[in-house]
Amino acid sequence: MIAFDTGNGRSTSHENRSHDAPIRIDPRRAKHTFFENVDGPLWGEPKRRGETSFGGLTGGATGGGVAGAAAAEVVAQGQQTVEMTDNLVFDPDSVTIASGTTVIWRNTGSIGHSVTAYEDEIPGEAEYFASGGFDSEQAARQAYPEGEIGGGEQYQHTFEVEGSYRYFCIPHETAGMVASIEVAAGGGTTAGGGGGALPAVPNSAKTLGVATVSALLSVLALAYFFLKYGGDYGLD
């Protein structure tokens, strides 16, 4: 027999086929572990070229989530995200990356945009890039709105050749929606970024810092208390 303690002085019992002795379980001591589904990007099949793709779908976290998170972190180290907004800007509008980095443009608004390289403003040996997989600037301009990146969609391209690249949004070029990418050894900066990402602070260091500040505040409070209310401790 298994008896469950409900915490209000009553218990419910269930038959246990393997043991006759009652076993009491306090549900307040019970622990539960569960997993939730999470959304993660998964690039779709390329439309025309192996380096460009659209779309995303939902993935699920399982018991192997720790290994999956580590793998995602490794992938993220070779990526740079640029947002396209309803303010008609690329954000950031200037980035410096290392060779082999994949730039992902995400439309975070509702207005359609394009990512279209200026054909004469990329390195001569570099492969041309444009959303929709076009091979030239003229072809991309003539075919638009084919190649448009709608709200919630994305486009990506991997940069292998070092040098300077400038690109624009076809429908908003005259509004100044133009940006640049510098592919250089090392890479890792954005406009106004001042030289790349800051190093991560370990959780143990954060905990130690909080504990130290708390201790100092306690000492100061105690000292203030004794100074204000301590009285006369002189000997008669």
Give a structural overview:
The protein has 236 residues and is an alpha+beta fold. Among the domains are: 1-30, no CATH class; 43-60 and 75-190, Cupredoxins -  blue copper proteins (Immunoglobulin-like, Sandwich). Helix content is 19%, strand content 25%. It has a five-stranded mixed beta sheet. It has a four-stranded mixed beta sheet with strand order 7-6-9-11, with no helix packed on it. A hairpin with a 5-residue loop joins strand 6 and strand 7 (90-91).
Provide a compact summary of the structure.
The chain has 236 residues and is an alpha+beta fold.
Q: Which keywords apply here?
A:
single chain, elongated, 25% strand, Immunoglobulin-like, 4-stranded mixed sheet, 236 residues, 3 helices, alpha+beta
